[in-house]
């Protein structure tokens, strides 16, 4: 039986021995299939279409990817491998250094070395410890100093405990209250502006102790518990010119050995002394603002003193006709103390009465503030005018109070700007030595105290303008960079520190070359069991030998107008330090040091000042239907 074979050839259905043929055919077909699988590649037989190729070869076998089952995630082994490699590399690059840095023994970072101004500042503050009078604490740190002046004012019946304490003024053993007050004001001002710097160099507590030592004493010199007083004790000790009787100038004794009479001077009028004392207590009250009780005590005392100063019937200078004071610390005017004291009292209390006085046209006129007299641009224990105007300029720069103060504050600002111009050599207002020292006292002795004060004012003015982003100021038709004024301040202080023709530091203990014959009784007489009499100490005054004790940090009087210096104990104009001079030195140094950062604290001084403008009313409550 035959059937049509649509695939080519015939199909036979047979019985019997036909099985053998089928087996042979199947075997032949199998061989053909194998051959086709092995030899009949479609690349060699392009005439075979795809369908025929698929019958012969079947579908191409795909390469299977290998997967890893992680439970909740299934991923390829290749991806897993690269992920693990990435984690290992990240650990080596990031994790391992982090672990090492965390557990490696830590070393404290080296502090930035202090600059020269900081080094000098540390020493300048020590001078005040050497000048202390009274019962000294064990921590005073001056081994050649001890208790002294314990009988000062003991005969006074209205002062319990007498007038013990305070500071000796200079190389003698007199306590002049006028320059003591100025020194305390200057120290407080420097702390108010640069508290962050004092903290950074570890001197904040020290300078507060120095200020309090002075203000505690000043509070004893008048009835600080009263609201109205009729006198102030203005001086303890002293001497008459050309005296031949035992006193602070005729005798050359350590303060611990004094055995002569020390008279107390009393001022029943004294607008200058009382105004300066009020400034000192008011400024200190801001320094001690965290000690509420003591700060209030200082404010109360300052207000009492200023009321005494403003008493119209007590307008005679505190030193007028007094031979114990007038030849040494004579006050030439008191209207500058009115401006100075009222400005500080305004900052200490916020009472507008004080700022109204400080900006009154009458006070400006009487203090000669409107006249650009060169001598009135020189800050000193006698003339506070340039400092007072700068202090009030501060208010205009940072608070901009507007009417009714703006006109006078703008005037003070303009005069302050011209004062700063006068310090620059290019304008020829003051002479300069060949070595570069400005001659603010016209070549007379003890020039450095005026130089340090000017450097402080200039540096402070720069910091005020820097704090408000102002790059300079006008000097007539010229606009000058603040760098010019900063350079003036740094050049003058660098001269004092040793950049001068003699290569000498005028601060005792700073640098390798400094004065060794300082005009100072306590430093020039050896300590020990021997007490030298009034005239017994003369041999130490007159010897050519160096002082047995260095009075560390003392800024001496300074060189002459030719940059020459005589290191002679008997020539006080060269070698005598003063309390007021060192206060200006401290202020200038802290203003220039980079320790603790640059700039002033803009807000501390205004702590007690109320808002100058009405407060905005609170928003209305939300509307409810």
From TrEMBL:
The active site is at 519, 567, 576. Keywords: Carbohydrate metabolism, Cellulose degradation, Glycosidase, Hydrolase, Membrane, Polysaccharide degradation, Transmembrane, Transmembrane helix. It catalyses: Endohydrolysis of (1->4)-beta-D-glucosidic linkages in cellulose, lichenin and cereal beta-D-glucans. InterPro entries: 6-hairpin_glycosidase_sf, 6hp_glycosidase-like_sf, Glyco_hydro_9, Glyco_hydro_9_Asp/Glu_AS, Glyco_hydro_9_His_AS. SUPFAM superfamilies: Six-hairpin glycosidases. GO terms for molecular function: cellulase activity. Pfam families: Glyco_hydro_9 (PF00759). Residues 1-30 are annotated as: Disordered. Its EC number is 3.2.1.4. GO terms for biological process: cellulose catabolic process. Residues 117-589 form the Glycoside hydrolase family domain. The chain crosses the membrane at residues 84-104. PROSITE patterns: GH9_2, GH9_3. PANTHER family: ENDO-1,4-BETA-GLUCANASE. Belongs to the glycosyl hydrolase 9 (cellulase E) family. This is Endoglucanase. It comes from Anisodus acutangulus.
């Amino acid at each position: 039986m035959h059937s049509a074979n649509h695939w080519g050839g015939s199909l036979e259905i047979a019985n019997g021995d036909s099985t053998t043929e089928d087996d042979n055919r199947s075997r032949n077909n199998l061989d053909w299939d194998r051959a086709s699988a092995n030899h009949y590649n479609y690349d060699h037989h392009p005439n075979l279409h795809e369908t025929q190729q698929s019958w012969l070869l079947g579908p191409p076998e795909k390469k299977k990817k290998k997967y890893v089952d992680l439970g909740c995630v299934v991923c390829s082994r290749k991806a897993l491998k690269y992920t693990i490699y990435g984690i290992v590399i990240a650990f080596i690059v990031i994790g391992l250094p982090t672990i090492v840095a965390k557990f490696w023994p830590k070393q404290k970072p080296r502090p930035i070395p202090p600059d020269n101004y900081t080094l000098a500042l540390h020493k300048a503050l020590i001078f005040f410890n050497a000048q202390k009078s009274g019962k000294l604490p064990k921590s005073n740190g001056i081994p050649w100093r001890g208790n002294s002046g314990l009988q000062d004012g003991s005969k006074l019946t209205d002062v319990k405990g007498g007038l013990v304490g305070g500071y000796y003024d200079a190389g003698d053993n007199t306590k002049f209250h006028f320059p003591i007050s100025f020194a305390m004001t200057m120290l407080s001002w420097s702390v108010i502006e640069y508290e962050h710097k004092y903290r950074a160099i570890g001197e904040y507590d020290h300078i507060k102790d120095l200020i309090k030592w002075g203000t505690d004493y000043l509070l004893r010199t008048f009835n600080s518990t009263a609201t109205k007083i009729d006198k102030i004790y203005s001086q303890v000790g002293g001497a008459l010119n050309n005296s031949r009787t035992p006193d602070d100038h005729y005798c050359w004794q350590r303060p611990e050995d004094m055995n002569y009479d020390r008279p107390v001077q009393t001022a029943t009028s004294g607008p200058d002394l009382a105004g300066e004392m009020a400034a000192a207590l008011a400024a200190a009250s801001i320094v001690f603002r965290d000690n509420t009780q003591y700060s209030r005590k200082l404010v109360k005392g300052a207000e009492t003193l200023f009321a005494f100063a403003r008493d119209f019937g007590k307008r005679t200078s505190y030193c007028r006709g007094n031979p114990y004071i007038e030849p040494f610390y004579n006050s030439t005017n008191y209207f500058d103390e009115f401006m100075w004291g009222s400005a500080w009292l305004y900052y200490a209390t916020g009472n507008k009465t004080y700022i109204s006085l400080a900006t009154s046209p009458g006070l400006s006129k009487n203090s000669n503030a409107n006249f650009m007299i060169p001598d009135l641009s020189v800050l000193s224990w006698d003339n506070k005018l340039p400092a007072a105007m700068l202090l009030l300029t501060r208010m205009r720069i940072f608070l901009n109070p507007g009417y009714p103060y703006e006109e006078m504050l703008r005037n003070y600002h303009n005069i302050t700007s011209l004062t700063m111009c006068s310090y620059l050599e290019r304008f020829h207002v003051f002479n300069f030595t060949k070595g570069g020292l400005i001659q603010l006292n016209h070549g007379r002795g003890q020039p450095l105290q005026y130089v340090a004060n000017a450097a402080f004012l200039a540096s402070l003015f720069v910091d005020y303008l820097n704090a408000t982003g102002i790059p300079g100021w006008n000097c007539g038709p010229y606009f000058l960079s603040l760098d010019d004024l900063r350079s003036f301040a740094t050049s003058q202080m660098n001269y004092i520190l040793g950049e001068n023709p003699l290569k000498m530091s005028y601060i005792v203990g700073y640098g390798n070359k400094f004065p060794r014959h300082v005009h100072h009784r306590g430093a020039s007489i050896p300590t020990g069991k021997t007490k030298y009499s009034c005239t017994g100490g003369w041999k130490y005054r007159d010897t050519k030998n160096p002082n047995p004790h260095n009075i560390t940090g003392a800024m001496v009087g300074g060189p002459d107008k030719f940059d020459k210096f005589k290191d002679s104990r008997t020539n006080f104009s060269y070698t005598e330090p003063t309390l007021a001079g060192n206060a200006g030195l401290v202020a200038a140094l802290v203003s220039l040091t980079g320790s603790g950062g640059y700039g002033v604290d803009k807000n501390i001084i205004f702590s007690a000042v109320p808002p100058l403008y009405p407060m905005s009313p609170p928003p209305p409550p939300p509307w409810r239907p």
